[in-house]
Design brief:
It contains two helices and four strands, in the order βαββαβ. With about 100 residues, the chain is an alpha+beta fold. The chain has a four-stranded antiparallel beta sheet. β2 and β3 form a beta hairpin. The chain is globular.
């Protein structure tokens, strides 16, 4: 049975990207954040954020989709494509808790 959850890693074009973003790249990352908020509202994004790995910071997201091709289509609209590439990996059976009610 194919997975409906997909782990996406955003790999920037340079290792020190998070610490050396240009003004233009900061604008791109703000647009990337807006893109992610749109995916969250659409119900395709489960979670996303930076991973503060000492070996190098990277972005991660988990999408719920019918196929890897669907995730690829979604990511075609991600402004962050200008600063790096997406690595998409299907996830196996997963435990996911429901969202907490607002204010808790």
């Amino acid at each position: 049975m194919p997975s409906s959850l997909f782990f996406v890693r955003l790999v920037s074009n340079r290792p020190n990207f998070a610490m050396s973003m240009t003004a233009e790249e900061q604008t791109t990352m703000r647009a990337h954040g807006e893109f992610l908020q749109g995916q969250l509202a659409a119900g395709t994004l489960v979670v996303a954020g930076p991973v503060l790995d000492p070996a190098g910071i990277f972005g991660m997201a988990v999408f719920e989709a019918e196929s890897m091709d669907e995730v690829r289509r979604i990511l075609e609209s991600d402004p962050a494509r200008a600063i790096g590439r997406h690595e998409i990996t299907p996830m196996g059976p997963s435990s996911v808790r429901p969202a907490r009610p607002a204010g808790t």
